[in-house]
Amino acid sequence: METILNIVSIIIIVFGILQIILFFKVWGMTNNVSEMKNMMEQFLKKDFQDKDKFEPTTSNITNNIEPDKEDFPSNTKFCKGDIVIYKPENMKLTVIGYMSPNIFKCKTMDGIDKTYCFQEEYLDKSK
Fold first, then answer.
1. Are residues 66 and 10 in the same domain?
2. What residues form the membrane-spanning segments (predicted)?
3. Residues 19 and 44 in one domain
4. According to the 3-state scheme, what is the secondary structure of 32-50?
5. What residues have CB less than 8 Å from 73, skipping those under 6 apart?
6. Do residue 16 and residue 39 come from a single domain?
7. Would the pTM count as exceeding 0.70?
8. Which of 5, 69, 105, 127 has the fewest CB atoms within 10 Å of its CB?
9. In a shared domain, residues 65 and 117
């Protein structure tokens, strides 16, 4: 009887220690969520401020106004202001930003002003 009590006590102690470890792990993850939230807020603020600075339209491209290319690395396939086609849906878009290697931020040209991020292989330059 005493051995069963000892075994159960050891199991309860191990379970309690694991619960404490789990508590601190979850607490640490909430800090990570707060950091991600702050990063997203900063990104959205920057995106909103950039919207006021540059409004891509077809008139900008046809008038040969050179868009700002400072955000784009020199070896990219597309530049800011390029008109591209999203291949799977055959949708015309305007490149407005460079997010990370091979990912471009694009805006629709149909007046709805939706913004998307696409990988380079899904985009093709419009003719």
1. no
2. 6-27
3. yes
4. HHHHHHHHHHHHHHHHHHH
5. 98
6. yes
7. no
8. 127
9. yes
